[in-house]
Structure formats: C-alpha cells, structure tokens
C-alpha cells in the first residue's frame, strides 16, 4: 500500500493498495495501520465505520462537522464514485482548495480527509457502496451542509443529479456557511 499527499488539500492523503487479482476475483488490504502511521496519522483514532449505498446519479454532500470537525477515510468498496474534498480550514495553506478523485471497487483507493474539510460524492455506477472510517462518534447537532452547486466552488459533477436528500437540496451557500462559522 502506497500513501501519497494530496497537493490541493494540506494534510489529505490518497492510500493506494495493491489488489491481487486472479480468476476468482481479487483480494486487497484496504487499511494498514503501519502505512497510516507512516504519514503521521494515528490508526487507533478511528472509532466508527459506516457504509452508504447509492445508485447512479445520487449526490451526497457537501458535508462537514462543526466544532472539532471530523477526520475520515473514504473508500468506494463497490462500484465507482466521483469524490470531492474542499478545504474549509481558515488557517490552512490550501484554504478553499478542492480535490477530486474517482474512487472505485476495482482500485480500492482510500482518501484521508482531515477535520475541517467538506466532503461529497456522486455515484457513477448503477450501485456504489462507499465506506467511511471516522475519528469521532457522529453527533447530528454538528452536521453542516453546503450547496453542492455553489458557483464559488464550481465543482464539475460528472452526471445530472438523480436524487439527493432534502437537507442537501436545501443547503446554504458556502458564503453563508462561512459567515455562520465566523460567529
């Protein structure tokens, strides 16, 4: 497994495993504590694993947590997604930087998203399962959502949106969220 820094987002990493494929399918290590530790992350900091299933065109995000934030490892375990990370840490050298990834069940690549960054994705295949490893217990009162189509972010979503949650549909602009966070 190889870890690569993501230049657009300070402190973000892309973990690329080596799937072993044969006529049966493949086998792949998707998490390696030693590799995670080698880039300065605590592998024991992650306390919750979750998975979402989406159908083609579904968009989830852009989401982040207020307060101490939430760091996470995100991987598409089956299917394919267009994954987006936006740096919203005012003191970061990559503040407002954006990074885009195609994550898939074929490659099993994982993105480490530091606390204070917004995250979203769109399913590119008929079914896409996305796995999350999170460093804090979820607290819905800290959920923050930013409009997926905010012109300031100009995210190039690859497909028309077929479905999204009401919360995501009604999300405020980036400017509104940033103004609220300053208080």
UniProtKB/TrEMBL annotation:
GO terms for cellular component: cytosol. InterPro entries: RmlC-like, RmlC-like_jellyroll, RmlC_Cupin_sf. Keywords: Isomerase. It is an enzyme of class 5 (isomerase). The active site is at 63 (proton acceptor), 132 (proton donor). Its EC number is 5.1.3.13. GO terms for biological process: dTDP-rhamnose biosynthetic process; polysaccharide biosynthetic process. The keyword Isomerase applies. It catalyses: dTDP-4-dehydro-6-deoxy-alpha-D-glucose = dTDP-4-dehydro-beta-L-rhamnose. Signal peptide: none annotated. GO terms for molecular function: dTDP-4-dehydrorhamnose 3,5-epimerase activity. Coiled coil: none annotated. CDD domains: cupin_RmlC. Pathway: Carbohydrate biosynthesis; dTDP-L-rhamnose biosynthesis. Homodimer. Belongs to the dTDP-4-dehydrorhamnose 3,5-epimerase family. Catalyzes the epimerization of the C3' and C5'positions of dTDP-6-deoxy-D-xylo-4-hexulose, forming dTDP-6-deoxy-L-lyxo-4-hexulose. This is dTDP-4-dehydrorhamnose 3,5-epimerase.
């Amino acid at each position: 497994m190889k870890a690569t820094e993501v230049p657009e987002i300070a402190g973000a990493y892309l973990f690329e495993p080596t799937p072993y494929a044969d006529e049966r399918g493949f086998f792949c290590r998707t998490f390696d504590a030693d590799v995670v530790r080698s880039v300065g992350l605590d592998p024991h900091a992650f306390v919750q694993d979750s998975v979402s299933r989406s159908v083609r065109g579904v968009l989830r995000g852009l989401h982040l947590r207020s307060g101490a934030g939430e760091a996470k490892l995100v991987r598409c375990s089956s299917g394919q997604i267009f994954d987006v990370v936006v740096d919203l840490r005012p003191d970061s050298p990559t503040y407002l930087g954006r990074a885009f990834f195609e994550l898939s069940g074929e490659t099993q690549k994982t993105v480490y998203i530091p606390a204070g960054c917004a995250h979203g994705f769109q399913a590119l295949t008929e079914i896409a399962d996305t796995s999350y490893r999170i460093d804090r217990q979820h607290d819905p009162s800290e959920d923050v959502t930013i409009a997926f189509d905010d012109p300031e972010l100009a995210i190039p979503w690859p497909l028309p949106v077929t479905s999204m949650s009401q919360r995501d549909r009604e999300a405020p602009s980036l400017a509104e969220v940033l103004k609220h966070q300053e208080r």
